[in-house]
Amino acid sequence: MPGRESADRKQVTQGRWASMLLLPTLILLAIVIIYPVVNAIIMSFQKDAALNPTTGLFEEGGSAGFSNYSDWLFQQCSGQSCPPGTLGSQFWSSMGTTFFFAVVTVALETVIGFWMAIIMARVFRGRSAVRAAVLVPWAIPTAVTAKLWFFIFAFEGIANKLFGTQILWTGSEWPAKWAIIISDVWKTTPFMALLILAGLQLIPDEVYEAAKVDGASTWQRFTQITLPLVRPALMVAVLFRALDALRMFDLPYIMTQGANNTSTLSILVVDQIRQGFNSAAALSTITFLVIFIVAFIFVRFLGANAVGAATSSGRK
Amino acid sequence: MPVRRKKFDWGQVRTYVSAVVILVWCLAPAYWMIVTAFRDTGFTFDPSIWPTHVTWDNFATVFDENLGNHFGRNLLNSLLVAGVTTIVALVVGVFAAYALARLNFRFKFAVMGFILGASMFPGVAIVTPLFQLFTNIGWMGTYQVLIIPNISFVLPLTVYTLTSFFREMPWELEESARIDGCTQGQAFRKVILPLAAPATFTTAILAFISAWNEFLIASQLSSDSTRTVTVAIAYFAGAQPHQEPYTAVMAAGTIVTVPLVILVLVFQRKIVAGLTAGAVK
């Protein structure tokens, strides 16, 4: 059939066009992402220059097998258990801190963001002012946010004065953790709120009106209509934020330098770089795998269809 | 049914109270930064919510070369790094986004997944090898060591946002231009590019803000002469040694933040559309 043939030819020319147009992006991403990652993986199996504990000689290079990985996982430093305070001993506590930050910040941001989104979806005078205001924390660079909240949480700072407390916020473990969490929630809740708001606006008003007529209470309307219908948008937002939170660096690095058990995996990698490229590479590969596994779990088991949201559209 | 006039709408009152809470929560810390930026150092911790002991000294400290602050240089560095990153990401990203939004081809899903995956990539995974590579080839202290990794963070965002914008565009116009005798290239240049300009502009703002805010790579790979503002703010030196120069840091933060906030408020609607485009539709 002639029609079929021309459709095929169209497909072929489109394919050729597409590969030409996509090539620059794919080449750039290959250079700036795939090359470093492959390089990091190769590096992670090499030995760092160090004293050999058995011979007492300084050795450089050579294959390390999986020892860089097992050193982190089992907290070994030159064949012995790492003394407290060294970077090697901090792996599991950093892993715990990273997940603690991720779970708490994402949970808070989801709940507060949902509440903000519901308010912003209502009709009232000044609504556009509120929608503009939530962009302010989002627009401030994280490094500035960190310094700003460091100042707010200073010993003589406004936080202590406002609440009549005398807490050394960035000087001990739990206050420091909460200071970081509060700063992160302030900075990124707006992003969450806007994504949820966009999801809310896709729900037609008629659905709510029908439910009202049927006598559904506010709570029922929320749990039976809003939640299920907004779920796809919500899952994607939570996925984005969770992956962002798992690689958290700027805020804790600037506010506490990772002291008082606030070091995340990303901070640990950066601290390690100057002490040994190759074991830093192993640690960054572990971090990468952790984030990859979390993303996989989200997409596979919780139904966050990020690629689908990106590729499916009204027109084919 | 008798028409009853509503006496008082409690629901509406609750909405307004909530709106005020949101406004205060979002704006108060930023306001506090600006107020502190104008305070005399001796009154750093003055709890008054109004500007007191107003001075411009902190802004002078920020630019004081004698204290080792090179903030003017830092600003130019950030402009250069973020500017070049944005332009490269935009030029390259527009073509990719056009292909993804408009053309049918095999592996489309895989390419989209790869680009999306790249945007979720942890920056630390590339810091170590890049640090070693750039040291080996003697690039440390140059601008390209900041720009190249930055592209890897900004480009996926650009492609992603532009793709979702391009899907909404009236592509029928392109086809009618072709019927009127334009080649595909002409149709793209004369019809589609002007239509795509607003979306491209919005994406440029998002890309620039993202590149401007970059800290991880800049903190590890920049030298004294290429230091960007975000890193400079994190390591600021004040007039007194061994003392956190809070007021000067707040002044620096204000300088970096106010232009961004104005930009964001002016293009508020577009930015919200850009932020939410890919994720929800």
TrEMBL record, chain A:
InterPro entries: MetI-like (IPR000515), MetI-like_sf (IPR035906), Sugar_ABC_transporter (IPR052730). Belongs to the binding-protein-dependent transport system permease family. GO terms for biological process: transmembrane transport. This is Carbohydrate ABC transporter permease. Keywords: Membrane, Transmembrane, Transmembrane helix, Transport. GO terms for cellular component: plasma membrane. Residues 95-298 form the ABC transmembrane type-1 domain. It is a multi-pass membrane protein. It is found in: Cell membrane; Membrane. Coiled coil: none annotated. SUPFAM superfamilies: MetI-like (SSF161098). The chain crosses the membrane at residues 21-45, 99-121, 133-158, 280-302.
TrEMBL record, chain B:
Pfam families: BPD_transp_1 (PF00528). GO terms for cellular component: plasma membrane. GO terms for biological process: transmembrane transport. The chain crosses the membrane at residues 16-38, 79-101, 113-134, 146-166, 187-212, 246-267. It is found in: Cell membrane. It is a multi-pass membrane protein. This is Carbohydrate ABC transporter permease. The lineage of its organism: Bacteria, Bacillati, Actinomycetota, Actinomycetes, Micrococcales.
